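Support request, please re-run this one:
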Amino acid sequence: MRRTHIPALLLLAACAAVGCSKRAVAPEARTQQVPIPAPVNPGRVADAVDRQTTEEGDEGAPEKITGPVSFANADAAYQAKKYSEVVTLFQAYTEQRPGNAWGHFMLGLSASKAGDPAKAESAFMQALSIDPNHVKSLVNLSRVLLDQGRTDDALVHLTHAGEIAASSGEVQRLLGRAYAEQRKDDEAADAYRRAIALDPHDAWSMNNLGLLLLEQDRADEALPMLARAVQLRMDVPAFHNNLGMALEHTGRFLAAADEYRGALTADPGYGKAKQNLARVEAVKVGHEEPFDLEAVATVGR
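Re-run finished. Output below.
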């Protein structure tokens, strides 16, 4: 696939402002009339549950388990987001019932939430040794591997998951993420489109597809996807920021500023949106047609 090139002046300006790394700079908007640094691109954003970090509610090291553990009790602790405690509970549960794939799956899920990818990987692999077609273990093991940059390994499990769960939008979304990491943009876009066809409310696939298009200097095509993602999930700051980038690339600076403000409403500490908002607010803008989010999002349906 032929790729677009970013003019050196814009690239240097963006690098000076925020530092450069792989895919850190969005493509230049060729429709812009005012030369400005490229918006700060957060990169391809994975779906929310891909982020294997400790969530609020974890209260630290649990007490030592001294008796039998029921699946229901361990799951109740999981629902309460006491992930360190849950790891210990499901560790005990799997020792009591080593042949239960779901127990190992929950141990892996809890370990990933508690920030222990090694234990998570081991638990998911144990679940798969019991049931090689355990789709949830295949999917969540792939997330752990993707978070570690082990894309080839993740694709092995995702391909298998796709063979036995062809109607899973979640599998297709993760395939899109894996292909995107490998710079196989056409395959990634196809996977995201399959995910959206399976689930018309999959805002994360819409967001990620929109970013792919934006990086290919196809901001007009990206707009409906990103607008629909914002319409579905107004609470996700990255969606507002990404829509703001697409608007900025198509010369809609006032509308872009509104979306950057929307990102900051959702997350006042979102640094990328702060930088983008400061930049577009400095641009002298004449007449600009109002941006109709509803109308544009409808195109993305």
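The domain at 18-44+210-301 is CATH 1.25.40.10 (Serine Threonine Protein Phosphatase 5, Tetratricopeptide repeat). Residues 116 and 224 are 38 Å apart (CA to CA).
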